[in-house]
# Entry
Amino acid sequence: MGLDGVDKFDKVDRARFFLIVPLDFEKIALTELKQKWPTLSHWIRQSERQDEMPAVEIVPGGLLLETDLERGCLLNLLLKVPTRILLRVLSFRCRDFPKLYNKVRKIPWQHYLLGQLPEISASASKSRIMHTGRIKDCMLSAIQDFYKARPPSKKGVEAAQLLAVPTELYVRFEADECTLSIDTSGDPLYKRSYKTFVGKAPIRENLASALLMILQEQLPKREVSALIDPMCGSGTFLFEHLFLNCANFSRDYSFLHLPLFKPFLKHYDEIKSAYSFSVPVPLLSYLGFDIDPETITGAKSNCTNAVTPVVFETADLFNFKYKKFHDKNMVVLNPPYGERIKTTEMAGGLREYFHNIVEAIIVTYAPLLLAMVVPRKILMKEKIKGYQVVQTHLFTHGGIKLRFVIWADKRQKIEDKTPL
Ligand SMILES: C[S@@+](CC[C@H](N)C(=O)[O-])C[C@H]1O[C@@H](n2cnc3c(N)ncnc32)[C@H](O)[C@@H]1O
# Structure
């Protein structure tokens, strides 16, 4: 294998990964994983290596799977729903600090660290060891003592000093079971790097992607050619839809600095240079409107790529001056809920405000599908002007209980394209 000791270490062929996923989105994260797994097989193209998707365990807030190291790390590039991807280092039963120290000191840290001390993120529940401060201290002294016995190379230590994001080690005690995992993502995966301007009250990129994937489930039956966000802010929904099937090679990831991944770096560079940005654009056009001109200027600055088919314009949804839209579009939006952004249109109460938004959208865009984030405390009508709710998804964002509601135009003849 070429890396000290790694050939004797089965972490390369069989590694366990934990994909941290926002609560309430575990199932859609699994759907995404299944859809994108063939891309990994296409990238790796090694017949002797297992191509089949492994069994995945769904747990609240994540997905657990076992695969080889390269595939598990490369998932960072493809998946839009997870927040980060952890590589399991070790799991063991532990009820006292001397055992924790001894176990941690014996881990071959040269496979995971360059010689630096990682940041420790500790949590504990229903365990004899509960003090997270002491857990961190014990972990750090065990790793320091590991380095005393096996000093890291000067080159490694220098490389570690150049890391933009510190390496993070996750320690979790749950019913006296200690699980150690190293982060492979670095910055959280919702930091996509293509967007520099952030509007007021933005939706997190990975939540936007997850909601769009739920919306996509309605698409096989309808021919949609445009996506419109009439209250677009920085354009999160539009960009996330545009890049839904693209791999993100334009940012750094912690796995690229993981000694275990070193043998795969050359292949990573080959995949990156062969990766074509001619991944088909999912829809013909993307339109974002916002009442605030400064927000629109900012959103336009996010369109750094000249070929981006996203158009932004200043417009008030309740006083829309552009031509009427009657092409085959769908609308998605996350309106203000009166918490961080308040508007005069909310004077009649939030329920009336949200119904007025739906009516204004139907009159202006006549969409095939209309999908909106609505606070759960607001009960929306099932049927509005020829539209009917076809799906809802409950979730929580920033502590607010929300509902993603999808209405469909009942008058459209829906052709069921599901194969017989
Ligand atoms: C919650 S933010 C949307 C954030 C956006 N989804 C994002 O991630 O950046 C709501 C946006 O609606 C805009 N807005 C409020 N009233 C509007 C109206 N009447 N017409 C158009 N935009 C409006 C606000 O300026 C704000 O940018």
Q: What stands out?
A: The pocket of S-adenosylmethionine is lined by residues 199-203, 230-234, 236-237, 289-292, 295, 316-318, 334-336, 341, 343 (CB under 6 Å). The chain has two domains: 6-183, 205-245+280-409. The two ends are 48 Å apart (CA to CA). The longest strand covers residues 387-397.
